[in-house]
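Lab notebook page, bench 4
Experiment: in silico fold of construct C2
Operator: M.H.
Input chain length: 514 residues
Purpose: comparison with the prior construct
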Amino acid sequence: MRRTSASLVAGTLVAALAWASSPSSPAIALEPSAGVADLTQDINQILSDSRLTIARAGVVVKSAATGEELYATDAGKLLTPASNTKLFTSAAAAETLGLDYRFPTTVLSSGRKAGSVLAGDLVLRGTGDPTMLAEDYDALAAKIAAAGVKVVTGKLVTDDTWFDSQRLGNDWSWDDESAYYAAPISALTASPDRDYDAGSVIVSVAADGDKVKVSTTPETGYLKIVNKATVGSETDVLIERQHNSRTVVITGTVKDPYQEWVAVDDPTAYVASLFRTSLAKHGVKVLGATVTGPAPAEAKELARHESMTLGELLVPFLKLSNNIHAEILTKAMGRKVANQGTWSAGLKVSTDFAKANGVQVINMRDGSGLSRRDGFSPGSIVQLLTAVRSKPWFKTWYESLPIAGNAERFVGGTLRSRMRNTPAAGNVHAKTGSLTGVTSLSGYVTSAEGEPLIFSIMLNQYLSGSPKDIEDKIAIRLAQFTRATATADATQLRATEQGEAGDLECSWLKPVQC
């Protein structure tokens, strides 16, 4: 069992007590104390880093206790947020859908059962559940068999009409099309693991004598594997699905086992193949073809599976910065509010929620931050983070944010290798964000005096050398903040350990399991 230092436990307790307090009061005009002046000087020094000379940096720090703005630079500038967008999507989802929201997946039929024969079509209907595994579809098939059905005379119908047919975001890069973090969005989808990477399959390679063995998780014949890899003295292999196809080409050399998460081309068709295979395994034969379409209005439910609650889903969603969860929740919000499972309807829900909570500068193009046309100001992010403290779902949402320096994947999340052994460890609850040339960190930290602080750090358009350590130094400095006294030289405020991932968060580096 990993041991935790007494100081870390104490810091975590102070943070918990601070954030369990009442919502912030209106801003109080205070004379800048020596501690605030010192904080300003130190953050300015941190931001003078040469990597930011040609970059854009926006930083806002606010006291949640008094409403006082402790530091601000370019607070109102529109910047690219990357995955900080998920703060808005997740908060809007908690408000709109509720923490008890679940995604049902059902099997229906409009036909009549005579003995072991079901005369009519069998319909598989989804509502976007990103947590559905192959074993869950298998369990639905087992329920059909347990009901005594052995033959279905009609077709296997996949009903994914809960969402529209637009699979990819308008601004997503074409070369991300086969990447698991930009998988197509469908109301019927499947995940290969309990990170719930919906719409993807894990493709694994291993040396087997003088040949390279390929396997998939889950086992599926949906993908066409073209294996050109050879056994070599090192593992230098590329596993890539060709654009707009089911063909996965594997090239390079393999010495040690390696795996890659690959997005499928069509989640609905992929799920249909999984479900049909499971039906056959359980002795249910479907005579007709597989087609896509809406379930008839008179169709009756034969079997049902319900997902975990949204409150539970927030953990893998926010801790691991799952893009697909964000987009599915966006369409789910659109479906609930406007009866339209579309990006446009869902983004309006998120935007309306943000504006209703005082957010001024906001441009949402997707739910995850994958779009480079997403834009927020650091001041707007701090406004959102301030407003949600009064929400009944805040505690669950707050605990779902990554926690600095906690090595547990589903606790520390994308911050688990950052700010270890510093006053920020176990203290900072914040959302990370990463795109090429973009990094952001926004969330909550408790000062050395127990004062709850809210912050947003957005760094854009740097060319080389990840500035994530700059974010860490600011967050650590905030954890050391006191109003009355100065703190150590800012040049010493750096994380003592950095994770192997370095400049990228876990959501971009699935194979290394950072």
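Observations: DSSP finds twelve helices and 23 strands in the chain. Confidence is low (pLDDT under 50) at residues 1-14, 20-29, 494-503.
Next step: discuss at group meeting.
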